[in-house]
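In response to reviewer comment 3 from the previous cycle, which asked for concrete evidence that the modeling workflow produces usable outputs, we include below a single protein chain processed end to end. The sequence was submitted unchanged, and the resulting structure tokens are shown without manual editing.
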Amino acid sequence: MSTPGDAASAHAHAVPVHKVLNNNVVIAIDESGRERVLMGRGLGFQLKPDDVIDPRKVEKTFILDAGAAGEHERRLLTDVPYPIVEAVTRAVDAAERRLGRHLGRHLTVAVIDHVNYVIERLDQGLRIPSTAMPELRVLHPHEFDAAQAMARDIAASLDRELPPEEAVFLTMHLLNATRDEPNGTAALLFRRVQHVVEVVEHAFGVKLDTESPDYARFILHIQFLLQRLVNRTMLSSGDTSFFEFAKHSYPVSYEIARQVKSYVHGATGSELTDEELLYVIVHVERLKSQVAPSTPPPTVVP
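The workflow returned the following structure tokens.
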């Protein structure tokens, strides 16, 4: 399904109805023979096949995908309460303006599906568990800000409170819509950054201060490290003297870096170079300042 288009430009003249999905959503066939979804409050009320739609009443348009994906989109737009569809499409429009770019074919329908699911669960007294994921604010501040605004806009349009973690879920949707990578790559990269943080926190036995500059530097470095690994452009100078110095000078940080290396190998099948490991050691050593002196260090393996 395409992203919502401008109704006025997409429908400069009246078009015949093909099928009425509900009082607010109608299917029409465009000039190319594609099924186009037309949306607007009360647009489909008392319409019959072959009636003509007044384009001035059309608020949004979508082009349906072919096959099973299109059928899923059709069912979704038929079944989801229109206030949710309307709230999400308006929030996506605002996010596009905020980010200054088109957000792709599937973001709107994915967020409609997600928000509908969340509200159904809330109405049943259930809440989807999530973590705060503070790394998002460091790695993707623009998308995170846009997601927070989307959550506020949707909540205001529906006149109900959404859980604060909705900004996390919406950021993940935005990441996959704004990254010029295969679908899901951005989210996968972020998850791996999270797992590296978990390795370090487990080794230290504490939660790191997510507001500290050292934490931000560490997160950014790990993101770039993993991106270099994906792009096969890992650092490698051939000079191991600095690595050997750090290895012997900071044995605790070196051991934690080795655990990070082990995780990365298990997750990706790739080995970190000594130079990449050197920078992990340096950043972990900086993070040690956040660890209370009473915290037992990890066991150092010779």
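Residues 2-12 have pLDDT under 50 and may be disordered. We consider this sufficient to address the reviewer's concern, and the full set will be provided in the supplementary archive.
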